[in-house]
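Sat 14:20. Reprocessing the chain from the morning session after the first attempt stalled halfway. Input below, unchanged.
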Amino acid sequence: MKIEGSIRANLISAISSAQRWRGQKVHRETLEYWKQVLDHGRRISTNPLGEPVGDLVVRLETELTHARAR
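Finished this time. Tokens:
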């Protein structure tokens, strides 16, 4: 997966999308993309020199608990 832009921007975008789709079924590819962004955010958040994204990682994790695949 190639992340375009900052990981922070991608996490915010994924959170917004997941919130809009909450309770509805989404394409598996979309769900996989959100999970990949989340994994990348987790890796970045453990790097002391990386972007401060821990709060966004937690928010996306929470949103993904409500996500359902088609």
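The two ends are 22 Å apart (CA to CA).
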